[in-house]
Every structure is written in C-alpha cells, then in structure tokens.
Design brief:
Layout (H helix, E strand, L loop, with lengths): L2 H10 L3 H6 L2 E4 L1 H7 L3 E3 L5 E4 L8 E8 L4 E10 L5 E7 L3 E5 L5 H8 L7 H29 L1
Parallel strand pairs: 1-7
Antiparallel strand pairs: 1-2, 3-4, 3-7, 4-5, 5-6
C-alpha cells in the first residue's frame, strides 16, 4: 500500500477512539514544568491561546469539540455571514497552546501528575509502612545470624 494511502487511512478513516487521541495540543511552558508532559488531550473548559492562523494571539476557553473535524470551537472566535448571522470557527488542535486546564476531571489530573487514578492515598501510605517494617525485620535477622555464628 502506498504511504499516502496508509497515512490518509490513519487520519481520515480513523476509528472514534483513535480520533479522540488525535485531539491533543501542546502545553504552555509553566504547565510543562508542572506536569512533565509536552502535550495533552483538550477538553471543554480548557483555557487556550491560538498560535497560528487568522485568529493568532487570541485567548479563550474551549466551548465545543468536534472529533470529526479534529478541531475545537473557542469562545469569542466567530465569523459573520453576509446576512449578518454569526457562526463558530473551528480551529485545529495543532494550532493551539493550552494555558490552563479544566480541573473538574480528577482522573485526568491524576494521569497528568503520573499517579494511578484508581489508587487511593490510604493504600499508598500502607504500602510504605509495610516496606519499612520488612526492611527492619530483615536487618534484625541478619544481625541475629551473625551473633549466632560468633
């Protein structure tokens, strides 16, 4: 199969799951340092800055997401028809820079921070205490063995 055909199949005939993953945008410098990631999948409510295109430099929040177009509609970015009606302009996610994250989804934030979202903090505390106890026990048994050998 030709490379152009396989590339087009990945982009234009992708499954819904794959299309959803293609809705990623770069993170701003401060968010990169905070989370240690370069990009993130955008969701409604994220604050963004448009980096390229007609609306370059515009800041806003994401109001709608179109997985079919692989693009998003931003609040305040509209065009006017000849009759005077206004409509949303969809901007491709590769032309955006995420400046603020929507923190309503705790699962998403946990994944960004590198934690297991399903893991509860209490379990993490119990695991550390168990590890400390086992290391102390092994040290005690080693010293006891040395004393017995003497």
């Amino acid at each position: 199969m030709k490379p152009t055909k396989s590339r087009n199949n990945l982009i234009y005939h992708a499954t819904f799951h794959t299309r959803s993953k293609q809705l990623g945008s770069q993170l701003s410098e401060d968010l990169r340092k905070k989370y240690g990631k370069k990009s993130v999948r955008v969701i409604e409510g994220d604050s963004i800055k448009i980096v390229r295109g007609e609306f370059k430099g515009v800041d806003g929040k994401i109001s709608k997401i179109s997985t079919k177009k692989s693009s998003v509609a931003v609040e305040g970015v509209k065009k006017e028809k000849t009759k005077g009606d206004k409509f949303d302009v969809y901007i491709h996610t590769s032309n955006l820079l995420v400046t603020g994250l929507n923190t309503e989804d705790k699962w998403r934030i946990a994944k960004l921070e590198g934690k297991k979202p399903s893991e509860k903090p209490k379990e993490a505390i119990e695991k550390t205490t168990k590890k400390e106890n086992t290391t102390k026990e092994t040290k005690v048994t080693k010293t006891q063995k040395k004393e017995v050998e003497k």
